[in-house]
Write a structure and sequence with these properties.
This protein is an alpha/beta fold and 818 residues long. The chain has 25 helices and 31 strands. The protein is globular, with a radius of gyration of 27 Å. Keywords: ATP-binding, Helicase, Hydrolase, Nucleotide-binding.
């Protein structure tokens, strides 16, 4: 029997809601709030209020205080036009910070540069000043379109936000700067104007990949004059998504060269390890890093918050901790009552909806005017819904927002006072990125990390040094992944026939892949070039977000109204027949899932339960790339094939999480070829560890769960990017084996990183299990919220003994990274 733990999109992360009555820490009426009296409460004062009430103070496990920091100014480089400097001054910025001036100087010299400084450090102005100055220069040319610039962001929301910022800053510059957004929400009648006349086009990698590059002849005048490519929030381009974007950028460079241009890349990143290396790997050109942050920073108070244990018991009788969803909803409620403008970040779309809904209900008990000032924000909303929420947040009409990471990136939300993180966001880079949404105008800020009932979250709130004393992670991406590279070679050939001269541009794996693409009749070689000869659009072969196909449309059956979309990879587990689907505070039941037409038909209902999918997983080894001995044990890395099938779903009571019943499902299996790290142990080692045959499955299963939960400390991933399988006797190894694999075709680099840090990774796993206060295992150590086997069997004590034996012979030096 195999025990499995699946990656993104396979299980909804939401646990049962709170089971304890809420004790609000603040009970003052809205018209008595300190903010209304003109007093801006300090972050410490706000936290002290939150910590009052029965048992509230004990939930704060650690408070980190980041003192204010003074800034240092510099002068703009002399080539920056005086009109731009005047416009910046009119916006209230007399002189730039030193890192802004240094970034602009590199850009003006034609050197690609990445500015990797803290949140709210003015990275946008660092690249906008040279871009606007150069656009003004180009607008004075006697003929032609003039100089152009392209801005890429990972989300539509960020591009729209940047468009507003550019419009405000460039308003005094007149017609010399013509900025426009070009994405899936741009009306068809506006697109031709953007192609013909805009000189600063804001878009995303998806539109560049599917729209601009395949139609490059229509963009010829823009591309011929392209001087700068701005890549905002470039640290988000990691894993498979980052690998795809790296190849999209190589295709862009190739098409630009066809029109005689060679753009300079200007990248902005949250603080990250080795930003120059990551930026160079992403763009394929040498990039200089600016990492010294010379901007001032207000006081930051960062609290780690652990919800209490409840009197309930979950799967296998394990104690249940109050959920981060319920606890964060309480905090959002209390902060709104205090008049503290807050964003609560939550991992799942459903979680964002629930937090907003719970907060609205509780605020109604305090003041009938308050519920309308809290809302949810997530991907899958229609464009007009997203824009309305963004406007309300900017204007201050909203006091609180429960948001997914769709709002994490770069959005300049002035005036926010606090950020609540409903669970660790997966990486330290994302943690600081989300926390940095507050205090962006220089005032003090409060950030609260609310731990989920999860091994990593529990470990972090009791080991604050792992958050506050460790550097952020390196960005992991692999442009040479053949599953990534192959479709982009087809797309490139459709744009312009591929030649021998292109081999170096796309990387060393290109030469080997081209004959394979010929054999599959995707490309045809004629003379000295490879051509795309099929009728289909070549760009459609590459799914750059790794979402596994077209999004599934969620449609209200009675009216035909489109409610939103769900990623194809998540459809089997979130919109299967009988699933409960939440949208803007309303609940629906899925009546039919049509996978062929990518449509889920729903009808509004208010069931007293949530639904959770159950599945089975099998894994086979295709190739062992590397293998090293750990005594008699073996640590391996290589290629695997994973087969997963959703077989049923559970209905659980909303409040207690009690299972009401299980319903069988008939959904097709899905197969994934990817990369994995795995380890085996021998019978002698099992005897040394005193792991008896009847406890073996539970020991392996528990070690697998905990290791997946801890891996984000060592790789730039979260547990939803990876999956796992544990088998007491695997047919390929003929030994007890634990696998951890990347949840993306061809791999994302996470399993490889795990292989190279295995001793430290598995040591931390053992420590996390051993340190948990529970007796037999719980969600804080070895239970998983997305286990396809209902967290059965699990054996905490046997897992500790097994990992101790495994690690006893681990080599002192990790295997060298290739």
């Amino acid at each position: 029997m195999a025990f499995n733990h699946l990656p993104a999109g396979v299980h909804d992360a939401l646990s049962p809601l709170s089971v304890r009555p809420v004790t609000h820490s603040v009970s003052m009426a809205h018209d008595q709030l300190p903010r209304q009296a003109g007093i801006r409460p300090s972050p410490r004062a706000v936290l002290d209020r939150l910590g009052t009430g029965a048992g509230r103070g004990a939930r704060i496990t650690h408070t980190e205080h980041l003192p204010p920091r003074l800034g240092s100014h510099a002068d703009w480089p002399s080539p920056i036009r005086p009109e731009v400097i005047d416009a910046v001054r009119a916006a209230g910025i007399e002189r730039p910070w030193a890192h802004q001036a240094r970034t602009a100087a590199h850009a003006l010299r034609g050197e690609s540069v990445v500015v990797a400084t803290g949140t709210a450090s003015g990275k946008s102005l660092a690249y906008l000043a040279p871009v606007l100055s150069t656009l003004l220069d180009g607008s004075e040319e006697p003929s032609g379109r003039g100089t152009t610039a392209l801005y890429l962001s990972p989300t539509k929301a960020l591009a729209a936000d940047q468009r507003r910022s550019v419009a405000d800053l460039a308003a005094p510059l007149g017609a010399g700067v013509r900025a426009a957004v070009y994405d899936g929400d741009t009306p068809v009648e506006e697109r031709e104007w953007v192609r013909q006349y805009a000189n600063y086009v804001l878009t995303n990698p998806d539109m560049l990949h599917r729209g601009i590059l395949p139609g490059h002849p229509r963009w010829s005048s823009f591309l011929r004059a392209l001087r700068y490519v701005v890549i905002d929030e470039c640290h988000t381009y990691r894993g498979v998504f980052g690998s795809h974007v790296a190849q999209v950028l190589r295709r862009l460079r190739r098409v630009c060269a066809r029109y005689g241009s060679s753009p300079v890349f200007l990248l902005a990143s949250a603080t990250s390890a080795d930003p120059a290396v990551a930026a160079t790997r992403l763009t394929g050109v040498p990039v200089t890093a600016i990492t010294e942050d010379s901007s001032p920073r207000g006081e930051v108070v960062f609290a780690l918050w652990e919800p209490p244990l409840t009197e309930l018991h979950g799967e296998q009788g394990a104690p249940v901790r109050r959920t981060a969803t319920a606890e964060s909803a309480d905090l959002l409620t209390d902060l709104a009552v205090q008049g503290v403008r807050t964003v609560t970040f939550v991992r799942s779309r459903r979680g964002a909806e629930l937090i907003a809904l719970i907060a609205q209900e509780r605020l109604a008990e305090v003041d009938r005017s308050l519920p309308d000032r809290v809302a949810a924000y997530r991907g899958g909303y229609l464009p007009e819904e997203r824009r309305a929420l963004e406007r309300a947040l900017h204007s201050g009409d909203l006091l609180g927002l429960a948001a997914t990471t769709a709002l994490e990136l770069g959005m300049d939300i002035a005036g926010l006072d606090a950020v609540v993180l409903a669970g660790y966001p997966g990486t330290r880079a994302s943690l600081w990125q989300q926390a940095g949404r507050a205090g962006r105008t220089g005032q003090g800020a409060l950030a609260i990390l609310v731990a989920r009932d999860d091994p990593l979250d529990t470990y972090l709130v009791h080991h604050p040094d792992a958050l506050f004393r460790q550097p952020v992670e390196s960005t992991v991406l692999d442009p040479d992944n053949p599953y990534v590279l192959a479709p982009h070679l087809c797309a490139a050939a459709a744009e312009l026939p591929l030649t021998e001269a292109d081999l170096d541009l796309f990387g060393p794996a290109t030469e080997e892949l081209l004959p394979q693409l010929e054999q599959r009749k995707l490309l045809r070689r004629r003379a000295t070039a490879w051509h795309w000869t099929r009728r289909e659009r070549a760009a459609d072969l590459a799914d750059i977000r790794g979402e596994g196909g077209s999004p599934v449309q969620v449609v209200e059956a009675a009216t035909g109204r489109l409610l939103g979309t769900v990623d194809a990879s998540a459809a089997h587990t979130t919109v299967h027949e009988g699933a409960v689907h939440l949208h803007q505070g309303r609940s629906y039941i899925v009546r039919q899932l049509d996978l062929e037409d990518s449509v889920a038909l729903v009808e509004e209902a208010s069931p007293p339960y949530s639904t959770t999918a159950r599945d089975t997983t099998a894994i086979s080894i295709l190739e062992t790339t590397t293998e090293i001995p750990w005594g008699d044990a073996r640590l391996c890395f290589g290629s695997v094939e994973v087969t997963n099938q959703v077989v049923s779903f559970l209905r659980r009571k909303l409040i207690t999480g009690e299972v009401l019943g299980e319903t069988k499902l008939d959904l097709p299996p899905r197969t994934l070829r990817t990369r994995a790290v795995w380890w085996t142990v021998t019978e002698d080692q099992l005897e040394d560890a005193r792991v008896h045959p009847q406890a073996l499955g539970g020991a392996l299963h528990a070690a697998e769960h905990a290791s997946i939960g801890i891996l984000p400390l060592f790789a730039t991933c979260d547990r939803w990017d990876i999956g796992g399988v544990s088998v007491p006797l695997h047919p390929d190894t003929l030994l007890p084996t634990v696998f951890v694999y990347d949840g993306h075709p061809g791999g994302a680099g996470f399993a490889e990183r795990a292989f190279h840090t295995a001793a430290r990774w598995l040591t931390a796993t053992r420590e996390a299990i051993a340190a948990c206060e529970c007796e037999a295992g719980c969600p804080s150590c070895i239970q998983s919220p997305k286990c396809g086997n209902g967290n059965d069997p699990l054996d905490k004590r046997a897992a500790i003994r097994l990992l101790t034996t495994l690690l006893a012979k681990a080599p002192d030096q990790p295997p060298a990274e290739g």
